[in-house]
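Supplementary Methods, section 5.1.

A reviewer requested that the exact input to the structure prediction be made available. We therefore reproduce it here, unchanged from the version used in the analyses.
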Amino acid sequence: MNVKVLIMGLRAAGKTTLIRNVLEGKDFEELKNIPATEGIETPSYNYRGLVEINVFDCGGQTQFLENYYSEHMIGTIFGGKTRILFWVVDSSDVKLLEESRKEFLKAFQAVKEYSEVYPLVYVLVHKYDKHILLKKDIETYFKEIEGIKGVKFYTTSCVTGTARKVLIKLLDEIVKKESEARIKSLQNILKKFNSKIGSNISTLINSEDGLEIASEFGKHSNLEMNSEIVEFLQYLSVKVMSNSIDKATEIFKQFREHGFITDPRYDLVLWRLKNEYVLFFKLHSKVSLLSIIPIGSISIDKYVKEAEKISSEVLKILKL
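The structure derived from this sequence is encoded token-by-token as follows.
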């Protein structure tokens, strides 16, 4: 399944930072001072390991905005099966609000006319951690335009983490509905796996964004799949854990060069806590298995053996 997403707005509104914060699992500190987008960039992301998100990240400088509506570009940008238009407004810049509304109307009309499917349109009131303009005021101002029914408004900030939560929620409304059967199949595999290893919880993690693909609690766990835990897993990105492993791998390569080890490749990383093991098992370059297991419930070799058993079935469902 492919999902085409447009992200547009005026210059320096924070569009590219938003996308990379969510779909690459990068923290705000990693994204400071990224260069402005010139023209259109079209990265693709394997979101949650379930769908391909094709992003049209459109630079917001005036010379680029004018070209988007030219005869040779308008169909390419707004046409095809464009599922979502995100319009990003910088809530800390009062001077550009009128221009932003004007350009939004052009984008709204174009996507409604050219998209082959019914597009969802969202206005992201961004940089809300340092806002001058309130969401309600921006929403009221934009809704003065006739004919923009169905547009929803959200506040976002990469600094506070609301950007990741909002975009994940909106993407999941499409993705999880379309992938419900595959998610259920993965949960059944994890349920059987947990019963064999005595895990509190096992979660399949998408390497690209660090987000959960599917999770299942063990039958002996005291945890319950309540709304609070579901939300925690939904928005959690463990990309920082895999990043630290990648950095360690570079050191392992140096170990091999000096004869300390024979092979720097890894399949399992283990953290021993006071009462539990946290295990990170690499099923594939694009998906890992994260499990939390009480110490003493299973040997590490037994865990690896059971993880290897489910590997081919998981990868088949994920089409890897």
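The chain is about 40% helix and 25% strand. These observations are discussed further in the main text.
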